[in-house]
Every structure is written in structure tokens, then in C-alpha cells.
Amino acid sequence: MSNYKYIVISDLDGTLCNSREILSEQTKEYIVKFQEEHPEVLVTFCTGRPWAEAKDIYEQLQLKSYIACLNGSYIYNPHTKHLITSFLSTKFLSYLLSFPSTLSNLVKGALITDKLLLPLESDLPKATLQALEKSESNLVGVKLFYKESDWGVVSELIAWIKKFSPAPRVSIFFYPGLLNIELQSSQLDKSSFVQFISNYVGVEYKNILTFGDNHNDIPMMKGGVRGYALSNALFLLKQEASVISKYSNDEDGVIKELTSFFADKTN
């Protein structure tokens, strides 16, 4: 039986992590101590990162339960090894790779499976499909990076992807000089994890605190949770949030808001 009264769910990049995409020492130490002092609060994260790129943070923070990667498509408890995920078909991958510019214009990319990351290094679709088959793993997501100057090509690629049925969820992230396209099952988003973890530990939405900064965090702000947008968050996210923090991710905004909220709460 769960004794949790609250759940804290944070995004990683741009939120719990600083602009260097790592945890500050202050945040790391605070979260570890916070869990010791507040056993009634379950702390977790929901990120767009694959598990291989989030595992170290899980261990640094000494988390105790499920987390979500790939924007909710990969829900995992490292302690029990229990995995809940949604896959993309090899039929879709073959369709994606049949578009000429998918590989020819690619700067870098990877297939994200339930076992490992498979770098997209070959401009031969058949080699990529064979690599996935040889890995004996299931396709969870795809990460593609293109030059910002290739926006026209990327737009055509996205239009091509959306013609597939069932179409996957397409997320676009902008970095200096680069466009990042992320593909995952359309069945799940970050709200899926909020719903899952709420049901799993028996905590009402009103006692769930969520933290984010980007458009893929918007689903985590809905349903009656107490959603926080850090000061560096996108305007669209701030419109959906319950609270707009005056602190950014580089100012340890998450832990400052936790300090404020739980100041008058007792176990």
C-alpha cells in the first residue's frame, strides 16, 4: 500500500537540468535530501530523453519508482525492471527510410529501441532495417537531426510521415543551426505518465506538482495538476501552467518552488 500524499514530476532538459543539460550540485543534493525528509512525496521525472541518456540522473537523484522517457512512451521502474512501452512498427520505419532525404540530408540520428540506441550512420535503408532486426529489439522512437537550412526538406519529410497510417507523434525541437525531429507512438504523451503514476500510487491530480519548459510538457499541465512553468519556459507552456516561476532552470527553479510549496506541509 502506498503512503504517498504528493507526487512531483519534472521534465529534465530546460527544467530540472541546467542549460548544460546536467544537474547542478545544489539540485542534486536538494532532491536527495528532500526525499529523505519528505517520505510522503514521490519524486520522479518525465523526459523526452531515451532511458540510456536519463539513467545517470535517476541514479544521482536516488529515485525510488517509475520514470518516463521518450515523452511518456517508455515508462520504467529500474528497481523492478518493469517496463511499459509503446512501439513503432518496422513497416513504418521502412516507409520513413523510403523518403530520399531522410538519410541523405541527415546530420545525425538514432533508432531508440527497448534495449539500446542504434545510430543512423548508413545512407542505405536496408542496412538500417537489418541492424534493427539483428538487435532483436523493438523500435520505441526515432531521433533525426538536420541542418536548420534544410527546413524545406524537413517540412516535406514531416508531410510524408503524416501520410502514414497510423501516423506517429512528431515533435520538433530547434537548436542553434539544427532541427531535431523526434518520432514516437501517437498513443502516448507526457499526460499518459501523469495518469499512470497517479493511479499507481493513489494520489489525486490536485496533489501532483509538474514542472516543465517546452511544448512537449504542455500535456503535463492539464487535468487539474499544479503545473509549474519555469521563467525560461515557452509562452505557450506558461499559458497552460498554474504557476509561472520567477526562477529559471539555471537558477535551480524546481527546488526553489519545492521549498516554497512544502514549507508549511507536514508528513
Report the radius of gyration as a whole number of Å.
19 Å
Question: Widest sheet: strand order?
Answer: 2-1-11-12-13
The CATH class of the largest domain is Alpha Beta
The rough form would be described as globular
CATH superfamily assignment of the largest domain?
A: HAD superfamily/HAD-like
The biggest sheet, with number of strands, parallel, antiparallel or mixed sense and barrel status, is: 5 strands, parallel
Discrete helix count: 10
CATH architecture identity of the largest domain = 3-Layer(aba) Sandwich
GO molecular function: magnesium ion binding; phosphatase activity
Keywords: Hydrolase
Pfam family, one: Hydrolase_3
Protein name: HAD superfamily hydrolase Cof
Structure commentary:
There is one protein chain. With 267 residues, the protein is α/β, with parallel strands linked by helices. It has two domains: 6-85 and 188-264, HAD superfamily/HAD-like (Rossmann fold, 3-Layer(aba) Sandwich); 90-184, top7, de novo designed protein (2-Layer Sandwich), CATH 3.30.1710. 33% of the residues lie in helices and 24% in strands. The protein contains ten helices and 13 strands. It has helices at residues 12-16, 25-37, 55-61, 90-97, 101-104, 125-135, 151-162, 190-201, 235-240, 253-261; strands spanning 6-10, 41-45, 67-69, 74-77, 82-85, 108-113, 117-119, 139-147, 169-175, 178-184, 208-212, 226-229, 243-244. It has a five-stranded parallel sheet. It starts with 5 loop residues before the first strand and ends in a 6-residue tail after the last helix. The mean pLDDT is 93.
